[in-house]
Backbone:
């Protein structure tokens, strides 16, 4: 694992993309096939199944380190990473090992089938043989969650550099259902035809946010506009009489949305649709808010009752494959025409709807349409250039999302807690309150939105203005007012305030605002009435 | 009878001698462990510190009334017998031993156990009551020997030099910077210093501390004339307009916090070297044992956790709130 650990260090020690890509490309050129396949797998979220529970790992690590378990548990949130905490508390290494990455992975996977005691012996032995980064990487392999500052995009770029193949082609090859056990480097990367797998999705094209409005985009005639739906982006694949549903995060969601199975009855094979999964209200024939969809998210199997109460449809807005042919290089306007043709005769019981295009005269007109997006349960507008191909990943220029401004409220910080990992020694997690008469009523937490410099400043302040400690949480003097931005609000009996916010974050530190001028519970309830 | 040392909202106070140790509000008589700004504050009527610590304090605090003392020398202040002993934290830094009626207390300020080749090496003091820091009081903090880190830094510097890049190393201007200076291999290239570091160097050189040759990186300096240089600067100067003048560069940060990957990635630029002037977990524990003290007062850092661990292992340990900051990544406590 020396070579992989060296790669890890090279990537971890640099903040520069070029350096990371060069290190990865070098690795892909020289490493043995099995190792480079596992490297691709790890960096694209295909990790080996967890063979040891983290509870056991914590116990064993504390035992080996000669510290009580509570001390290990207190250290973990400060380090922010279980694999790293274990690596740091264990005694120094006793010997060394030159086994390869795939070798270690094979051994780890074999641990699923052995007795607990043997599992422990194997892990403890690895800990005595692996030092420094190797120990950390080994722990990462056991605990899963292999995020280390290398996106799939970056890895694909490195692969392109190492193999001389185009990045977009490689991105497509890496999609879908493959595993290092049943796939070789040759078949995944080198082979002529990569379309063998019927379930393989196309890499998603992602839009950048339009910050300053559309005036700079040029002539209105060159652009098409749609609602930006507030659902789950998904790709529906119909091939060989089967159907597959993929998320943007390359997760196969077919079983989570059984309603979509009927699509094969209404659309021909050799069709791939890009769209948004939304809960649909058959009575009003309109999409429900994100709150309704939330009940479906994370459910691997769906009870019948929920299927009736929160049925999901795909709002199709792009056609990527038609009659078995890849359409991604065809201009958007032509793809759209074909999409309309494909969806023309769909009956109401089909689980696919055509996402409408919006009529508008000029940019001002479009601005007025955007202003009412919330009424449509949309979160803004999408702008797509009529002649644009369907690109890979987030690219500037052809697709823009023009979102609504968030809702905001001014709130008082009342509790603070230190962050994890990157933010271990800063206070970054805050609880906010609004006035309820003369009392401050907590209603939301927020962690993001401030600059590092602001977090440092508030951290200093928290240290000096702590009233009480509840474990890691500090109650602070009510003093600072922050503007909290959020995307939605709903009633929530579980919260003392009676409301829950969607994606709250600190948009501004209102150092100019006195405590008394923060918003009130009535203000929150007004927002709930209007936007809830 | 009141205790030998008490904890007040102005700082650690000795009623028998009517003096404070490292107070954070202005007092008549302050005994100071070392010159970092969270321990040596402005505004006291008189300052007592080791002869080795005073020049930097005068440099930083300006006109102050001082009384110097040698390491190991004993003075009587009221009914208290007081002596200063090496803390190994930075040059001149001391633990302050206070004895009243046969009861011995030691206030250790900030300390580290490993000898760094520059500061007077740490000497644990037998006592009944020991006041300790716990900046790195978690078992995840364990330092490598200084020589290992020196090798890491020098090979990084050599790689930068070979790639035609200037190596920027961020460290506190007092203590850490001079310790690093002594670890650098002058064969690799010239060593340049930011004004904040060079001013402290000048004070310490006058005192007789041996430091390698450095070149002040003033605003007028021509970076091209110093190929393959390493620039030692306070963290706040990394990435500044002044630093950008040097063109292609890598930046690194030297701190105990660099032990944590998350912090390293947030703060370190290109590299983070794990080196601290505070005791690590093992250093804190071995020191507490060597003092023989039964009562331990934990002042700053991971106080709750460290005190709980000590309590479970037979000590009378408690957390004492102070305004000391230990090693921060953000502003130098001695800024």
Residues:
């Amino acid at each position: 694992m020396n070579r992989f650990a060296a790669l890890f260090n090279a990537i971890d020690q640099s903040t520069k993309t070029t350096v990371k890509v060069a290190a990865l490309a070098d690795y892909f050129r020289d490493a043995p096939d099995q190792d480079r396949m596992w490297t691709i797998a790890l960096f694209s979220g295909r990790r080996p199944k967890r063979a040891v529970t983290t509870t056991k790992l914590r116990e064993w690590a504390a035992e080996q380190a000669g510290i009580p378990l509570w001390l290990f548990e207190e250290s973990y949130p400060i380090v922010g990473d279980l694999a790293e905490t274990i690596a740091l508390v264990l005694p120094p290494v006793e010997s060394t090992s030159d086994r390869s990455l795939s070798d270690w992975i094979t051994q780890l996977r074999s641990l699923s089938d052995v007795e607990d005691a043997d599992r422990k012996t194997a892990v403890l032995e690895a800990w005595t043989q692996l030092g420094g980064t190797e120990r950390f990487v080994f722990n990462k392999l056991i605990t899963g969650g292999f995020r280390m500052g290398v996106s799939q995009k970056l890895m694909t770029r490195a692969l392109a550099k190492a193999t001389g193949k185009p990045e977009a082609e490689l991105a497509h090859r890496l999609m879908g259902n493959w595993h290092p056990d049943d796939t070789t480097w040759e078949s995944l990367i080198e082979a002529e035809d990569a379309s063998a797998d019927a379930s393989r999705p196309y890499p998603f094209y992602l839009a950048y946010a339009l910050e300053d409005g559309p005036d700079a985009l040029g002539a209105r005639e060159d652009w098409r506009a749609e609602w930006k739906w507030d659902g789950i982006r998904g790709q529906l694949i119909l091939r060989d009489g089967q159907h597959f549903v993929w998320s943007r995060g390359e997760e196969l969601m077919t079983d989570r949305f059984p309603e979509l199975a009927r699509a094969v009855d209404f659309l021909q094979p050799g069709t791939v649709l890009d769209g948004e999964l939304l809960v649909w209200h058959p009575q009003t024939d309109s999409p429900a808010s994100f709150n309704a969809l939330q009940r479906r998210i994370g459910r691997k199997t769906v009870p019948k009752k929920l299927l009736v109460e929160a049925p999901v449809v795909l709002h199709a807005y792009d056609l990527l494959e038609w009659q078995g042919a890849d359409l991604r290089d065809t201009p958007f306007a032509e793809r759209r025409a074909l999409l309309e043709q494909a969806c023309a005769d769909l009956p109401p019981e089909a689980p696919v709807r055509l996402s409408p295009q919006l009529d508008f005269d000029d940019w001002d007109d479009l601005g007025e349409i955007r202003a009412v997006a919330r009424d449509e349960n949309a979160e803004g507008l999408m702008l797509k250039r009529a002649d644009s191909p369907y690109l890979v990943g987030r690219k500037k220029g052809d697709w823009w999302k023009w979102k609504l401004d968030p809702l905001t409220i001014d709130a008082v910080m009342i509790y603070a807690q230190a962050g994890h990992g990157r933010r271990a020694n800063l206070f970054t997690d805050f609880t906010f309150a609004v006035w309820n008469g003369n009392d401050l009523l907590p209603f939301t937490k927020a962690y993001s939105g401030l600059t590092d410099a602001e977090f440092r400043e508030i951290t200093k302040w928290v240290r000096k203005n702590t009233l009480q400690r509840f474990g890691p949480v500090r109650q602070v003097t009510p003093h600072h007012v922050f503007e909290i931005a959020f995307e939605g609000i709903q009633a929530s009996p579980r919260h003392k305030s009676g409301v829950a916010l969607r994606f709250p974050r600190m948009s501004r530190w209102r150092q100019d605002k006195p405590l008394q001028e923060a918003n009130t519970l009535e203000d929150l309830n007004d927002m709930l009435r209007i936007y809830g | 009878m009141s205790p030998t040392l008490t904890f007040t909202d102005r700082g650690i106070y000795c009623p028998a001698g009517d003096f404070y140790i490292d107070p954070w509000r202005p007092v008549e008589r302050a005994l100071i462990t070392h010159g970092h700004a969270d321990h040596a504050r402005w505004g006291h009527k008189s300052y007592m510190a080791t002869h080795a610590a005073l020049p930097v304090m005068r440099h930083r605090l300006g006109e102050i009334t001082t009384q110097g003392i040698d390491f190991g020398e004993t003075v009587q202040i009221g009914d208290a017998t007081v002596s200063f002993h090496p803390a190994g934290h930075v040059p001149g830094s001391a633990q302050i031993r206070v004895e009243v009626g046969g009861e011995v207390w030691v206030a250790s300020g900030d300390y580290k156990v490993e000898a760094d080749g520059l500061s007077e090496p740490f000497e644990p003091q037998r006592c009944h009551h020991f006041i300790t820091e716990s900046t790195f009081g978690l078992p995840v903090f364990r330092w490598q020997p200084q020589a290992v880190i020196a090798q890491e830094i020098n090979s990084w510097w050599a790689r930068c030099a070979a790639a035609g890049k200037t190596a920027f190393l961020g460290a506190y201007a007092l203590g850490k910077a001079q310790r690093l200076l002594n670890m650098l291999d002058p064969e690799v290239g010239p060593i340049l210093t930011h004004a904040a570091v060079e001013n402290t160097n000048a004070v310490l050189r006058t005192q007789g501390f041996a430091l390698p040759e450095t070149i002040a990186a003033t605003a007028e300096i021509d970076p091209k004339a110093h190929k393959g240089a390493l620039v030692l600067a306070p963290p706040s100067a990394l990435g500044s307009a002044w630093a950008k003048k040097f063109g292609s560069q890598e930046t690194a940060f030297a701190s105990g916090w660099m032990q944590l990957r998350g912090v390293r990635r947030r703060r370190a630029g290109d590299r983070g070297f794990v080196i601290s002037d505070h005791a690590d977990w093992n250093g804190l524990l071995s020191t507490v044992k060597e003092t023989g003290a039964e009562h331990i007062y934990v002042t700053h850092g991971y106080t709750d956790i460290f005190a709980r661990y000590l309590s479970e292992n037979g000590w009378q340990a408690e957390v004492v709130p102070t305004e000391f900051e230990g090693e921060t990544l953000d502003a130098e406590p001695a800024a």
About this structure: Residues 17-30 of chain A form the longest helix (14 residues).
